[in-house]
């Protein structure tokens, strides 16, 4: 797991903090599946690559846990489709 990505199990979201601002991905673990419901970055982080870094961390976590990813969020789906190294995780 990327050390920059925090798994907030109480809030059921992965978080990346940069300069006091947060990017996060809400999730649900369902069996062997990691369902990504929503990805959001605070306005100051938009356009900085923070959401992409967060998604890379989420994908690495899923891979380490032996899970597939079901992206319900358009951003998560598009990110996974654009990164061929993670196509094996797409459910």
Automatic annotation (TrEMBL):
Residues 6-91 form the N-acetyltransferase domain. InterPro entries: Acyl_CoA_acyltransferase, Gcn5-rel_NAT, GNAT_YJDJ. SUPFAM superfamilies: Acyl-CoA N-acyltransferases (Nat). Pfam families: Acetyltransf_CG. It comes from the Bacteria. This is N-acetyltransferase domain-containing protein. It comes from Microvirga guangxiensis. The lineage of its organism: Bacteria, Pseudomonadati, Pseudomonadota, Alphaproteobacteria, Hyphomicrobiales.
